[in-house]
Amino acid sequence: MEKIDSSLGFTVINDAWNASPDSVSAAIKTFQELTGYRKKYLVIGDMLELGDREEEFHRNIGRSLDPREINYVYTFGELSRLIALEATKNYPVGAVKTFMDKMDLARSIKRVITENDVILLKASRGMQLDAIVPILMQ
Question: Where does the record place a coiled coil (predicted)?
Answer without folding.
Answer: none
